[in-house]
């Protein structure tokens, strides 16, 4: 269970901190725990992003049980924020100890040290620390670049993040879906719709299907700019690639068409939701009711109000206000 899995990790971390290093039996137990949690592929992917450029022979060494388990341990510590900011040096010490015992490769250790600095420290300090490491011979990798791209985007420094994306591409490092998602969300937060759409299209062009939350950001920005047809066209392309929209996706598109009072397009999206078994929520029904009322079709609005109540979706004040305004 998840609780037991957590306990196994706590015991393993306690062992490492007390300098009781794993043997074949303890590593087998940890690999079993990782598989039960469904985290094995994620850890292997992270290691692959760090060691890109090594030959296949080297890759087998990087993927040894000890490397996988200890990389998983450190990602778990860093990812869940289980260490206070003031203890970041303790994380670095732990990483160096694993390196000394040959339980983690130096490329993985150096990348996770940068990760620790980004998570627990000032971003500019972490960037300076990374540049010092580069001067000492450390080679940047897709994992580290994506860490900084995400961090700069979260701080609103999207221009810096875009520069890093182009830099890593110039070095022959392939960005992955998460890399583009950081940029897309960052551009959306900065209300730069052109860049947002441009990087989204680049992301899809190189073969990535975005997370629903990321696509919803793009749709929202396009619809705010009156480009709902483009947003709807992009959804059509993604649906062919196996993308699964949610009610927020459709709500943004409906609101875009509702601004133009294109009732039939709003209804087409509603029935597409029905066909795809996407349950409409308040924002969807509210948009339909308000659109009908603005177009003077109050009786149709009332029809969808009844459907809304039949679906146990509770109307809010704005829905009733739209109906009142429609009758006036």
Written overview of the protein:
By secondary structure, this protein is an all-alpha fold. The protein has helices spanning 2-17, 24-37, 40-50, 56-62, 65-79, 88-100, 106-120, 123-135, 142-154, 158-170, 177-189, 193-205, 212-224, 228-239, 247-259, 263-275, 282-294, 298-310, 317-327. α3 packs across α5, α5 (65-79) runs parallel beside α7 and α17 packs parallel to α19. The chain is elongated.
Assembly type of the chains comes to: single chain
Residue-averaged pLDDT, rounded?
87
Radius of gyration over alpha carbons?
Answer: 25 Å
* Through-space gap between termini: 59 Å
Short description:
The protein is mainly alpha-helical and 328 residues long. It is built from 19 helices and no strands.
Labels describing this entry:
328 residues; mainly alpha; 19 helices; 0% strand
Task: Draw up the topology in text.
Layout: H1 2-17, H2 24-37, H3 40-50, H4 56-62, H5 65-79, H6 88-100, H7 106-120, H8 123-135, H9 142-154, H10 158-170, H11 177-189, H12 193-205, H13 212-224, H14 228-239, H15 247-259, H16 263-275, H17 282-294, H18 298-310, H19 317-327
Helix pairs in contact: 1-2, 2-5, 3-5, 5-7, 6-7, 7-8, 7-9, 9-10, 9-11, 10-11, 11-12, 11-13, 12-13, 13-14, 13-15, 15-16, 15-17, 16-17, 17-18, 17-19, 18-19
């Amino acid at each position: 269970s998840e609780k037991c899995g957590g306990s196994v990790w706590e015991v393993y971390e306690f062992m490492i901190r007390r300098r009781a290093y794993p043997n074949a039996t303890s590593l087998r137990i940890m690999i079993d725990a990782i598989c039960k949690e469904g985290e094995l592929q994620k850890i292997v992917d992270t290691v692959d992003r760090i060691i890109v450029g090594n030959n296949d022979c080297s890759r087998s060494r990087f993927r040894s049980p000890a490397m996988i388990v200890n990389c998983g341990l450190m990602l778990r510590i860093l990812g869940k924020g289980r260490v206070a900011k003031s203890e970041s040096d303790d994380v670095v010490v732990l990483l160096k100890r694993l390196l000394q015992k040959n339980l983690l490769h130096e490329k993985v250790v150096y990348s996770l040290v940068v990760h620790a600095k980004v998570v627990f420290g000032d971003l500019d300090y972490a960037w300076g620390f990374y540049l010092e490491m580069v001067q000492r011979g450390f080679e940047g990798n897709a994992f580290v670049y994506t860490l900084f791209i995400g961090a700069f985007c979260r701080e609103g420094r999207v221009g810096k993040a875009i520069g890093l994306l182009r830099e890593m591409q110039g070095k022959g490092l392939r960005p992955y879906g998460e890399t583009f998602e950081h940029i897309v969300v960052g551009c959306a937060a900065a209300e730069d719709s052109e860049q947002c759409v441009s990087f989204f299209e680049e992301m899809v062009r190189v073969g990535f299907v975005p997370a629903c939350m990321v696509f919803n950001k793009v749709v929202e920005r396009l619809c705010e700019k009156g480009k709902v047809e483009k947003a709807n066209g992009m959804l059509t392309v993604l649906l062919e690639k196996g993308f699964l929209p949610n009610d927020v996706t459709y709500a943004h598109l409906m609101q875009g068409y509702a601004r133009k009072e294109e009732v039939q397009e709003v209804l087409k999206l509603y029935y597409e939701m029905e066909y795809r078994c996407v349950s409409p929520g308040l924002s969807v029904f509210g948009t339909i009711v308000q659109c009908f009322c603005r177009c003077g079709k109050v009786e149709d609005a009332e029809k969808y109000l009844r459907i809304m109540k039949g679906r146990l979706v509770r109307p809010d004040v704005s829905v009733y206000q739209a109906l009142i305004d429609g009758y006036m």
